[in-house]
Inverse folding.
């Protein structure tokens, strides 16, 4: 094994066998070579294998005690030293209404339902007392932690439940929160790097990471400096965001996470008090919501009511846009909305589809937002015609 400034290099097993052979030649017989099934030969081979095994163990330990290469429990142990812990798996949760006898108390973990599509099981995570009519809202969680898909329109069957329960409602599930799998080694290492950036508190990535707690989604935040935009002078920074907190709280967070001496650009100015009794003006660019108009032509299957299908298509489009989470400066392609339209029961075909900003005169195949703009979708801005 060779250890240098670049790390360790493991020697092949052949080198150890050659070394044993050469030493034996020097001491006993210059014509010696290792043969199968010989007593001395087997001893030398075993010694070579032992040294090679020790070398492998050293390599393993070198890997596991390096934060960049450590895996599994070794990674856990290293990262715990800097206060970082692996994210455990979480459970998918949702709510669904049920019908039982009036004024009935239903204990937690007493109801089990099963998806008719995936056979995944869910139990009630909280107790419930129904009203006088017997209707209640029950919270369910997956039996097995991890990413478990649940659709709002999914059908569920009661498998274990108190006799007082009559049936599950046919209404869709709601307040769905999909569970997450246990954090992988790769994801854990990414967070470790982010923590180092956080402590450095000087890079653009570190600022973005630290300010993500103050926006609803990371796509609602961007930081522009001279490295990302040649029009930004050195020593200046432009933070574009749609804060989920007050302007003052967001400005305070910016001041805490940007190095002293950096100057700010933006359309919003907040005076942040300092501990020495003075204040500092913090600027940032507050994102603007831009209405998005969508126009499409659809063909409806026979036997379906047009108004009902159109309303459902609009809901599916809005659900898609919300799940998609368009960010600052997004480009919105009209063809993206073909799939949620076709997923609507009763739609036979999409004959045309186009989008535009509310302020634009004409529709087109796509529309591009400015760096400080976020798309805003609404049912009123969706126009569908029957073809």
């Amino acid at each position: 094994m060779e250890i240098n400034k670049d790390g360790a290099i493991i020697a092949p097993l052949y080198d150890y066998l050659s070394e044993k052979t050469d030493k034996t030649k020097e001491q006993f017989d210059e014509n010696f070579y290792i043969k199968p099934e010989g007593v001395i030969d087997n001893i030398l081979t075993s010694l070579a294998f032992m040294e090679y095994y020790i070398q492998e163990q050293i390599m393993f330990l070198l890997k596991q005690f390096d934060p960049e290469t450590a895996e599994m429990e070794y990674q856990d142990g290293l990262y715990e030293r800097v206060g970082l812990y692996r994210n455990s798996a979480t459970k998918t949760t949702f709510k669904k209404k049920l019908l039982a006898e009036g004024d009935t108390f239903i204990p937690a973990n007493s109801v089990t339902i099963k998806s008719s599509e995936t056979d995944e099981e869910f139990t009630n995570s909280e107790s419930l007392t129904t009203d006088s009519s017997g209707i209640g809202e029950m919270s369910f969680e997956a039996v097995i932690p991890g990413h478990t898909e649940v659709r709002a329109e999914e059908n569920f069957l009661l498998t274990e439940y108190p006799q007082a329960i009559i049936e599950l409602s046919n209404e869709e599930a709601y307040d769905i929160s999909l569970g997450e799998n246990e954090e992988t080694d790769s994801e854990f290492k990414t967070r470790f790097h982010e923590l180092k950036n956080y402590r450095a508190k000087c890079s653009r990535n570190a600022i973005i990471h630290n300010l993500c707690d103050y926006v609803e989604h990371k796509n609602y935040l961007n930081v522009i400096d001279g490295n990302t935009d040649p029009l930004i002078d050195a020593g200046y920074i432009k933070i574009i965001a749609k804060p989920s907190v007050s302007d003052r709280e967001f400005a305070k967070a910016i001041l805490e996470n940007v190095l002293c001496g950096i100057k700010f650009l933006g359309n919003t100015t907040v005076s942040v008090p300092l501990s020495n009794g003075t204040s500092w003006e913090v600027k940032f660019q507050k994102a603007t919501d831009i209405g998005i108009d969508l126009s499409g032509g659809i063909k409806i299957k026979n036997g379906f009511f047009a108004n009902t299908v159109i309303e459902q298509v609009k809901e599916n489009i809005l659900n898609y846009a919300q799940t998609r989470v368009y960010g600052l400066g997004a480009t919105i392609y009209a063809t993206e909305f073909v799939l949620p339209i076709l997923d609507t029961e009763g739609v036979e075909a999409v004959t045309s589809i186009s989008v535009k900003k509310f302020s634009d005169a004409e529709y087109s195949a796509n529309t591009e937002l400015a760096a400080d703009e976020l798309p805003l979708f609404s049912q009123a801005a969706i126009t569908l015609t029957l073809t």
The longest strand covers residues 288-300.
